Input
Amino acid sequence: MLTAVYTLLLYLIQPLIWIRLWHRGKKLPGYRLRWKERYGYCKGKVVPGGIVLHSVSVGETLAAIPLVRALQYQYPDIPITVTTMTPTGSERAQSAFGKNVSHVYLPYDLPSAINRFLDTAAPRLMIIMETELWPNIIHILHRRHIPLIIANARLSERSAKRYQRIGNELAELLQKISCIAAQNSEDAERFKALGAKPEQVAVTGSLKFDISVTPELAARAVALRRQWAPHRPVWIAASTHEGEERIILETHRQLLEQFPTLLLILVPRHPERFQSVKELAEKLAFEPLMRSNNQVPSATTQVLIGDTMGELMLLYGIADIAFVGGSLVERGGHNPLEPSAHAIPVIMGPHIWNFKDICGRLEQAQGLITVADQAALYHEMVQLLTDSDLRKYYGLHAVDVLHQNQGALQQLLHIVEPYLNAQSH
Output
């Protein structure tokens, strides 16, 4: 009954969705393109009969990269289609995989659109990253006997409480999923409490730990560091949101009094905000250099804005200290493991619920510094910039946590195997 009401409402609000897409397209033109894909029209864009992997946006797409590469290596004859919902996720998928995988937007959760998409893609398996529980997709995949795995699944207490209101219908929905590969035992227990059967749920750990700095990336980072800042300290504030950039820039201004050669690399989370962040920096009397200009920062450059896509891991490799955004404002934080992979100290604000488990492990091992506000951020930055041994201490603990928790990828491949090998090629 609830699914029928949900579906009806979803059809009724489509005009509002078009208005929203058009409005968002003012800042990010990608939202105004490829609307047909959002309704399942993708003939000629996907290779049928393979794996469809869905990752909503940039964060999930980054976590999916090692999984997609491992699937390509292990099943070279099985085509892969990566679907996203956002233009930034789309861009990340295309730059990560190029022509080796198909890429389209996942259609809205309307039965007509989903059926149209599945008729064209005809997947033998669908993998959804993290926790996108779309009722119609789940029902239709189950009806068509197409296995569905939720990989890297997480379910916060907050979300679990919201889902509890649906009760029996949610339990019925969860039981149509072939496997829920949870990031940790707490997530697994929440899924079971909502109605998933114990045999459906596995604890694999987080795929986000299965990242590494390739020798090529390390070499590029070293070369850029020599070019940009051979004799000056560098800190990066990455994946920042509105409200955070001002805090970061004001902290940087304070730090320059004590560390006059300090360079800040500032990377806003959303591309549509690059310009407004540049204007904010100018308003605060900086002369920011945009990374997309491909200019080498001069000795007097104090702020470089990372306004390119797909370079965050590279930019982390240039820095001595990283602040990870979405955490000083109430956004739940972004991935602290990317800077950890470079063995540099990681600082975050108090709002880290998106990465609660990972941040907990890092903090426990003294691989993460949590700050409450701007004053605390300034204090920790002074400590770290003054003491290279302290930087090394936090950096090594951070990378240790990363290495100790790897292995989710292998467990996921083990889960996927029977679904792919049981079917004829």
About this structure: DSSP finds 18 helices and 14 strands in the chain. The first strand starts at residue 51 and ends at 54. The two ends are 38 Å apart (CA to CA). Residues 215-404 form a domain with the Rossmann fold fold (CATH 3.40.50.2000).
